[in-house]
Amino acid sequence: MQPQPFPYIVPKCEQAITTLYEDDDILVISKPEFLLSQPGKHPDNHDSVLSRLQPNHPDIALVHRLDLDTSGIMVVPLHKTACAHIARQFQLRQIHKTYTAVLWGLLEHDQGTLDYPIAKDWQHPPLQKICYETGKSSITKYRVLSRNKQENSTRVALDLLTGRTHQLRIHTRTFGHPIIGCDLYATDEAFHMSPRLMLHATELGFRHPETEEPMEFLSPVPF
Asked: Which residues of 191-200 are buried (b: 16+ CB within 10 A; e: fewer)?
C-alpha cells in the first residue's frame, strides 16, 4: 500500500469529540477517528481537536497527539501550569498509555516485547523506518486479548513504553502482524480488511496537575 501524497487534504470528520472528564485544570476526551489532533499545514486541514476546543478553552495546549486515523483518549491541559506539569510526566515516562488494536494474522505468543529503534524516513514523508544506526530506542509491550481464526486476526492490548511517531504501526508491521486498516505500513490484504485503522487509545493514567492524585481513564473501543 502506497501512502497518499503529502501533504493531502483530510476528509471532513462529522463525529463529535466525547468529553470523559473536565475540571478547572484538564479535559479528558475521546477523539474520533479521522480527526486531526491539531490543525494541519494545509489551510483546508484546520478542523482538529485543538481548533474545536479552543473557542471555549482559549488557553489550552496539547501535550500529546493521536494520529489522524487513531481514535481514543487524550488529556488536554486547560492552562500553562497544568500543561507544564503533564508535559513533565510525559518526559519522565510517568504516563500510562494502553491501546487496543486488531492485527493481521494469528500471534504465536500471548505476550511479548517489541524493541525496534525508529527514525524518520526522510525520503518518504510522513513515514518512519526501523534503523539500528540512527533510530531512537522504541519499546512496545503486547498481550493477546483474543484470536479470530476465521478472519485471520488477533486483538491485542499494546502498552507504550516510549512514544515515537507511528510507533505502534511500524512495530507491529516489523513484527510481521501489521494493524488492520493501516494505509501506511500494512500489506494491501491487511489494509483492505477494514475501512478504518483498527487502533484505539483505550487507557490513560497520570497524576492530576493540581492535586497530584493518580487518575485513570478508559475509553470504550468502537470496533
From this structure: bebbebbbbb
pLDDT, tens digit (0-9, with 9 covering 90-100), for 28-46: 999 999 999 999 888 888 8
- 66 three-state secondary structure: coil
Return the active site residues.
Answer: 67
Say if residue 178 is preceded by a cis peptide, omega within 30 of 0. no
Q: 111 pairs with which residues across the strands?
A: 143
CA distance 155 to 104: 9
> pLDDT grade, residue 3 (50/70/90)?
very low
- Cβ atoms < 10 Å from Cβ of 14: 8
Q: Read off the pLDDT of each residue in 154-182 and give the average, rounded to a whole number.
A: 96
Give yes or no for residue 109 having a pLDDT over 90.
yes
- Domains in the chain and their CATH numbers? 18-218 (3.30.2350.10)
Q: Cell numbers 497518499 label which residue?
A: 4
What's the CA gap between 173 and 94, in Å, rounded? 27
Nearest to 155 by CA among 106, 96, 109: 106
Report the predicted TM-score, pTM, of the whole model to 2 decimal places.
Answer: 0.93
